[in-house]
Amino acid sequence: MIKFVAKYPNFENTYTITLYFKKILVGGSSACHLKINDKTIPNKALLIINDKDGCLAEGLNETIFQVNQKKIVGTKMLYKGDIINLGETSLKIEDIDPSKAFEDLNREKKYEDFYRTYEEYESILNALEKEVYLSS
Description:
Elements: E1 2-7, E2 14-19, E3 23-27, E4 34-35, E5 46-51, E6 54-59, E7 65-67, E8 70-72, E9 75-78, E10 83-86, E11 89-96, H1 107-117, H2 122-135
Parallel strand pairs: 3-4
Antiparallel strand pairs: 1-2, 1-11, 3-5, 5-6, 6-9, 7-8, 7-10, 10-11
C-alpha cells in the first residue's frame, strides 16, 4: 500500500490517493493505476514497485522525474515524506506499507479476456471508458 497526497495543475485542492498494488503504473493513459491529466507526461511515465525490499520509482520511456526537487533519470528509492514531481503534478508520499500491497489485477488482460468471451459488450465498455475520460 502506498498513500499519496496529489496536487494537480489548475486545481486548488489536494487529493489523497491510496493504492494497494505492488506495482503502480503512473501516467496519462487510462490503463494506468494512477492516471494524471498532464499533457507534459507520457501515457506510461513511472512505475512504482512497492515490496519487502522497499519502494522504488522507475522512469519509463526515458521519462525524467524529480524526487525532492532532484532530477532523476532511471530509478530512485522512495521514502515516506518524499515528493515526486511529474510534469506539473506533485505526489507526496504519506505512507508506505508493503505488507498491505497485493499483486496487480492486470486490467488490460482482464479487458482482453472479457472482450473475447463477451464480444457484444466491447462497444459498450469502450463508450463508458470514453465517457469517464471526458468527465475527468
